[in-house]
Amino acid sequence: MTYLDDFEFLGNTNKVPDFIDGLKSGHSLFSLVLSYTETCEIPGITIAGADKDSIKFTPPADAEYLYYGYCKTIDKIPMTPDGKPTPALLTKMALDSANIPHIVINAGSKISPQLPFIQTGLSYGRNILVESAMSDSQVSHAVDYGRMVGKHLASMTDCLIIGESIPGGTTTALAVLRGFGFKAKVSSSIPTNPYELKNEIVNTALERLNSNDPYHVISKVGDPMIAFVAGMLSSASEITKVMLAGGTQMTAVLAFASKIGFNVKNTAIGTTCYISDDTSSNFKSTVLEIADIPVIAVNPGLSNSIFSGLKAFSEGFAKEGAGAGGSIISSMIKTGNDSSDFLKLCEKEYDRLFTSL
Amino acid sequence: MTYLDDFEFLGNTNKVPDFIDGLKSGHSLFSLVLSYTETCEIPGITIAGADKDSIKFTPPADAEYLYYGYCKTIDKIPMTPDGKPTPALLTKMALDSANIPHIVINAGSKISPQLPFIQTGLSYGRNILVESAMSDSQVSHAVDYGRMVGKHLASMTDCLIIGESIPGGTTTALAVLRGFGFKAKVSSSIPTNPYELKNEIVNTALERLNSNDPYHVISKVGDPMIAFVAGMLSSASEITKVMLAGGTQMTAVLAFASKIGFNVKNTAIGTTCYISDDTSSNFKSTVLEIADIPVIAVNPGLSNSIFSGLKAFSEGFAKEGAGAGGSIISSMIKTGNDSSDFLKLCEKEYDRLFTSL
């Protein structure tokens, strides 16, 4: 049994060996893009945070946990109301075990993390149920700065992995995909995916569209993360390999990037099998509809965990986030660890975090 | 004639070949640290800026010029009242010609640059003539964040080049060196180095010292750049090669770093011959007194320029800054360009900038 047995390949599988070789022999760099959409404040939309008022602390706290192993903005690491930890736990174990460097980017987080981060000057996105997400100039700013950051980071690495932390982001992702004409159904951090609520929000938001101009769609129903990461992908993929680390939100990034241009040959999506196997979403078919790229989905083996908090990821909670899937894939390729090795690392960390509370 | 003829080697010259080999075969990353000390507002201290009110725009404008080829914060690139350009012109030509990536760090600039940059949350330093530069906790913050940034950037590159843009920084550098007991005389951006004024400021500032604790010295008479870059050097030199790109200000960084610890084996200083040949300062002997490291000084050949604005660098104006010397050294090693090739690049850029005004 090797880590390859933990991988599932979708999309353009011809390009997979090239990506794996690149990740094995070259240097990778992980970037975590923090952002915020007020859409997450609609009750019932997300569980990223112990309660409504603490949701805005999740992105900076994820970043702080990756840096320090603990958070500064809040007391404990981000978790659901019943104590299930942030997927950043998986990301941290993946990056640390493979010694993959990472950098934090603030692309519209409501709260700045207490660590050195790349500042972009972007504001958070507005609640798309009631108003436009961003002004046109904010979308341009996000794309322009994304392009600059993507170009600079790409020139420092052989593979740029991009993850995100934006609570409520699956709802704006759904709106963007629908706005571009895809019949997307998206995953959620909640096992009983709140479809009706999401659809209601998205349908209301889409009424605001009066053109299919890509910038207009992002401005009316998107979020700063989608605009910024699409900009990053657009420039970085011209220079080096890029792995979008995430599920449905990265599908929306891909959809927007396909409008503004990016190098398909250097691009892949890396995610967890909890996303790709999610029958409530149509992740796979949506990616294939957008771009001819490889998708690597990893089974991190958490269903075998002795801890219910880790097992929960395999049962539909969180599923993905903070670039967990792409980080695990890069890490396994670099270290040769398989899912049982990785699970041991996560259990040790889980134990450290929850016995020290 | 090769670029090696343009180099002068000082200090521990045994380590020079290893540094040159590393710069030739590996990837370099240039980081520009922006900062500010209100000490620069003392009339007569600096010419970094067309007038007193515009000095604070010099660090962000230097960074913007490196990024965009023009400035956003101000209309023209930073220049002296009589039109001599910022040394960032040299840095830009060096980095661009060798395709060396760079990243901007805000470590206490009064004004943020209009581009993506690493944010540290540091405030600018106070005027050491009248008050302490920083609180103790600000010094710790600067060192801690410097260590974090240094660690992360070092893990992305084979050689981290660190430059600075802090107007008035030679005066705080002098104060720090004296505070640590070195009989330093420092260079200035002004040909008729305003010794008496500097000494008067430094002597007054040093009266504030009541201990030789290194953090105390930086807090009372230093600036945020010195604390931050020493932190960067301290962690980065444990991971990869580091070239401090600058003159007397980097000597002060080295002095503080030698107190908080750094890896001497991986450290060098790169500067211009306009600094190392400056008879009004004792740059060489001060470096040797502090640490057993190699110093590479490059002659960029600007004395042969047809433009008086470029020739001025060789006549004592600016001399160095924005990491020019270290960038030129890294660039020549990477491209094989010698000083006459480099001069052509600078003249072309100078022509572009000043005919487009």
List the helices and strands and how they pair.
The structure is a homodimer of 357-residue chains.
Chain A (H helix, E strand, L loop, with lengths): L6 E5 L4 H10 L2 E7 L23 H11 L19 H11 L3 E5 L10 E3 L16 H19 L4 E7 L3 H11 L15 H12 L7 H8 L2 H13 L4 E5 L2 H13 L6 E6 H4 L6 H8 L3 E5 L9 H7 L9 H12 L3 H17 L2
Parallel strand pairs in A: 2-3, 2-5, 3-4, 5-6, 6-7, 7-8
Antiparallel strand pairs in A: 1-8
Helix pairs in contact in A: 2-3, 3-13, 3-14, 4-7, 4-8, 5-6, 5-9, 8-9, 9-11
Name the CATH class of chain A. Answer: Alpha Beta
| Oligomer designation | homodimer
Q: Give the largest interface.
A: A-B, 25 and 25 residues
CATH superfamily of chain A: Nicotinate-nucleotide-dimethylbenzimidazole phosphoribosyltransferase (CobT), large domain
Helix-strand pattern of chain A, N to C? Answer: EHEHHEEHEHHHHEHEHHEHHH
**Describe the biggest sheet of chain A?**
8 strands, mixed
Binned strand content of chain A: 5-15%
Strand order of the largest sheet of chain A: 1-8-7-6-5-2-3-4
Query: What name does the CATH topology of chain A carry?
Result: Rossmann fold
Number of helical segments with 4 or more residues of chain A: 14
Radius of gyration of chain A from the CA trace?
18 Å
Distance N to C terminus of chain A = 36 Å
CATH architecture descriptor text of chain A: 3-Layer(aba) Sandwich
Question: Taking all residues together, what is the mean pLDDT of chain A?
Answer: 92
Count of strand segments of chain A? 8
